[in-house]
Amino acid sequence: MREIIDAISRASIRIKRAIEFGDTGYSDHTNKTGDTQLKLDIASDLIIEEEFQKAHSVKTIISEEKDTAKTLHENGKYIIGYDPLDGSSLIDVNLAVGSIFGIYENDTNGSSIVAAVYVVYGPRTEMVVAIDDVKLYRLGADGNFKEIKTITLNQKGKINATGATQKGWAAYHKKLVDEIFSDGYRLRYSGGMVPDLHQILLKGGGLFSYPATTDTPKGKLRLVFEVFPFAFVFEKALGSAIDGKKRLLELKPSHIHDTSPCFFGSNDEIERVLNAYAKQ
Ligand code: P6P
For a surface tag, which of 86, 149, 182, 216 has the fewest beta carbons within 10 Å of its beta carbon? Predict the structure, then answer.
């Protein structure tokens, strides 16, 4: 696992430079999910693939920016599902973005994830590694990541990050959101999954929701590259992650780009979601 984290560290330093000084224009390609790829999406994906080539424990990589899985080392142990540059369209307005990695054994079912890593490219470059617990690292002036602290969520938080277009929300979802705000929670939502969830983790808790909507009945966020890795992080940080009714890590994707409605948060807030969705 160490060589995988080292590969991600090297890749993140290269991606950080590409974000700061690279071409933020669009390519003439679209990914499997139909997103028009930024040149930075493709560049970040290539950087990560190059660094994983040096890690012989990586058997297969599955990227949000690739149509199919790619085998790197036949005798490798791990499958890595990753989103090389999540929220990349936010770079044009100078908001934080991130890279997300799920490390799996045998297959990419939620129950097969054994570690998760994400990197936030913001005012500072920070990496969070979840294996047995959740540790925060920060990139220093010397070009090395230094451990800062262990992250754990409180039982209850103060932040409500409400994803998806509101006109597409179900009435019971809108009622849940309004009730949470009426309890004094503060709206914190940038449209970037990585910084939005990182804020909840570092501020001690709250709720991030990306529900099913009329235009995205299976939600928008991808199980293998985004949802399972963050579900693993939140559970290891003593929080919870559900699809509205069950643990996200109990799900099995029907294909590598499959999506799910998702809720990540402190246990009190997730309990409120379960109660609101149980009646539906
Ligand atoms: P919406 C970015 O495009 C992304 O995939 C996630 O990073 C983010 O959480 C979500 O989409 C935002 O989607 O529909 O709320 O703008």
Answer: 182
